[in-house]
Amino acid sequence: YGLPVWMTEFCCWDKPAPGSVQAQIDYMNEALVMLEADPVVERYAWFIPRASGAVTSYPYMQLLSKDNIGELSPQGEVYAALTSLDTETRLPSSAPILPNTYSNCSAAESIREGSYEAVPYLRPTTDNAGTLMLTNFSGDKWVEYQVEVVQPSTQLCLRYVGITGSKLTISVDGTKQSEHQLPWTDSKWDTIELGLSLTQGRHRIRLQVSGNISMNWMIIR
To answer: Which residues, 6+ apart, have CB-to-CB distance to 209 below 8 Å?
Structure first.
């Protein structure tokens, strides 16, 4: 009918893998990116923010702790932080850029084109600092960030863990600028400094991964 769609009361109810808060979180990533990218979807609501039982019990969908009022569960932290694919807000380069603030990704682009590609997952981080990480990179997946560069910059500091040796391609405003080899880190988090030439002003930065890494944050200097 050409009318906007409101999607209500959805979650992965049909028995995610045993003991799997992570399976519910991964489903949440896939569903929300699809809903945000689909132009006919106007609003949506998760089922259910708070219920009886532990947040680690089936069906693992509680966003809020029932025992600690106002406290987000791991599922809730991801739900609250997941991208809205906002292309208007610019992230200041004077502060760390968090992984959940991407404005576009290869999965969202494929959804708009009528197909489907697996999304990068936002999950609770395994790093000793920060809250969330972006993972499930493989097959040349990419994410884009809208950045307001405060002063000309020559370096990108990336906090990552190398699950395999990987190649990172950085593009700025639609033009490939550089390629970097990211070594395997033996499941340990590392900060790598990469050359990046940015003039003052607004830029769209794309990070494309061939391999498999998890990202925590990045800083432009």
So the answer is: 137, 138, 140, 141, 142, 166, 167, 168, 169
Q: Give the CB-side neighbour count of residue 57, counting CA atoms within 13 A.
A: 7
* DSSP 8-state secondary structure symbol assigned to residue 101: G
| Residue 169: closest CA among 141, 199, 202 | 141
Whether the pLDDT of residue 18 is over 90: the answer is no
Q: Are 140 and 210 in contact (CB under 8 A)?
A: yes
Quote the pLDDT of residue 82. 96
Instruction: Judge whether 213 and 137 are in contact, CB under 8 Å.
Output: yes
On the question of pLDDT at 10 being above 80, the answer is: yes
Q: How far apart are CA 13 and CA 162, in angstroms?
A: 33
Query: Can you tell me the distance from the alpha carbon of 66 to that of 48, in angstroms, rounded to the nearest whole number?
Result: 12
How far CA 126 is from CA of 32, 132, 180, 215, in Å, comes to 23, 8, 24, 10
Neighbours of 105 (CB within 10 A): 23
Q: What is the DSSP string of 50-100?
A: S-SS-TTSTT---SB-SSSTTPBPHHHHHHHHS----SS--EETTSPBPGG
For the entire predicted model, the pTM comes to 0.93
